[in-house]
Task: inverse folding
């Protein structure tokens, strides 16, 4: 997968990496067991400090999205979240609140906002299905 | 109590060339493992600061500590632990690249031959070529290779990319810094002075902006990008002449309004929204824009 860093988003660079890998893992763009690029080449490719990538990876590991196998690299973990339901809801609530505030600033009305959410959800689900191996194999 | 000793600590540094004060009252702290940017215009005092760190210039006031040591009293100890690449690199022109590196290695107790070989290959530098025949970019590459092969704890880079073409710059600074940090992740420190800030946007963890010999701002890069915002609004009629508390700069042009906020961007956006603009956007400033906004 190709990561994109946007210095104008105001979001810490390591969090941009975290969020992009998280959503790639959730959408199926990265599959469980898939290896992540190692720190140094990724840092060079994105033109960021290796500290930033290292911080992003350790955050992803803390959140249970990836795991490090010493000497082999970092891998996407199977999609059984280790977090309790309430914790997951809480994490999501914070993110949703941020998007709602942003929609408010961009003057996107509630109905349009909800439609957009449904659209994106459908799109991601479709992608995930496309990435699943056929059942009859 | 057990705060780790900063790799660089400068307090109230002053240095004057005759009557011309280059640095006065500079404070700077760099913690281990950081890639720290020292940003300033030409003549802001960046090189003088670097030279005081190296004891190439004897400070006239203040304290300077490297690894907790005074570079005046412990010059050799300090210099063993760091490498310095000046803004203008000169080698003996009759030596080849390989001879130059061997010669420089002879001053060091440790030299990583693998790093040398892999970077020479990566930069396609021919070890049998005389340094006198190298381009400016290649000379800088050789100097950077020579700086990281001893695997020092601290790398001081003074304007490492000035005078180089953009393609060359893009290529090798990341490569060298990446190779250097990889050897001991999280432990190796870099201080880089530059006025070409956008080149280093992603590499810098923290920075200080220097102006007229002083530090005017010291911040984490992510912190700066979240604190400084550019807010743009367009109105159906002419832009209101309201005051915006906390706005650094305000530009008005007919129906359009552009503000630079240093913190408090949220409130300004709220305030603008209540004036029902046609459109309203906000984005973070890049480090270069923060630099310009700070010195304007």
Result:
């Amino acid at each position: 997968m190709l990561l994109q860093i946007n210095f104008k988003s105001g979001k810490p660079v390591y969090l941009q990496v975290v969020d992009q890998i998280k959503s790639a893992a959730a959408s199926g763009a990265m599959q469980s067991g898939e290896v992540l690029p190692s720190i140094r080449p990724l840092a060079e490719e994105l033109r960021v400090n290796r500290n930033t990538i290292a911080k992003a990876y350790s955050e992803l590991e803390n959140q249970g999205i990836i795991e490090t196998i010493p000497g082999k690299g970092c891998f996407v973990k199977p999609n059984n979240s280790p977090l309790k339901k309430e914790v997951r809801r809480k994490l999501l609530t914070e993110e949703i609140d941020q998007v709602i505030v942003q929609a408010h600033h961009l003057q996107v009305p509630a109905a349009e906002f909800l439609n957009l959410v449904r659209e994106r959800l459908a799109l991601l689900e479709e992608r995930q299905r496309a990435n699943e191996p056929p059942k009859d194999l | 109590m057990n705060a780790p000793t900063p790799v660089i600590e400068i307090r109230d540094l002053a240095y004057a060339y005759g009557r011309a004060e280059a640095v006065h009252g500079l404070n700077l702290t760099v913690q281990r493992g950081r890639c720290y940017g020292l940003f300033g215009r030409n003549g802001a005092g960046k090189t003088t600061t670097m030279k005081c760190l190296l004891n190439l210039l004897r400070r006239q006031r203040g304290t300077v500590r490297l690894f907790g040591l005074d570079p005046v009293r412990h010059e050799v100890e300090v210099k063993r632990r760091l490498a310095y690449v000046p803004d203008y690199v000169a080698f003996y022109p009759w030596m080849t690249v390989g001879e130059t590196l061997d010669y420089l290695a002879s001053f060091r107790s440790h030299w990583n031959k693998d790093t040398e070989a892999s970077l020479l290959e990566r930069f396609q530098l021919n070890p049998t070529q005389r340094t006198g025949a190298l381009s400016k970019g290649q000379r800088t590459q050789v100097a950077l290779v020579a700086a990281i092969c001893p695997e020092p704890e601290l790398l001081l880079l003074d304007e490492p990319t000035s005078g180089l073409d953009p393609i060359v710059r893009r290529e090798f600074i990341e490569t060298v810094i990446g190779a250097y940090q990889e050897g001991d992740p999280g432990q190796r420190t870099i201080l880089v002075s530059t006025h070409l800030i956008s080149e280093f946007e992603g590499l810098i963890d923290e920075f200080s902006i220097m102006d007229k010999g002083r530090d005017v701002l010291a911040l984490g890069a992510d912190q700066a990008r979240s604190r400084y915002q550019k807010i743009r609004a367009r109105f159906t009629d002419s832009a209101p002449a309201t005051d915006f508390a906390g706005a650094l700069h305000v530009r008005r042009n007919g129906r359009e309004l552009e503000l630079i906020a240093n913190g408090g961007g949220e409130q300004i956006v709220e305030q603008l929204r209540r004036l029902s603009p046609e459109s309203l956007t906000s984005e973070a400033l890049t480090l270069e824009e923060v630099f310009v906004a700070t010195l304007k």
Notes: Strands of chain A lie at 66-69, 73-76.
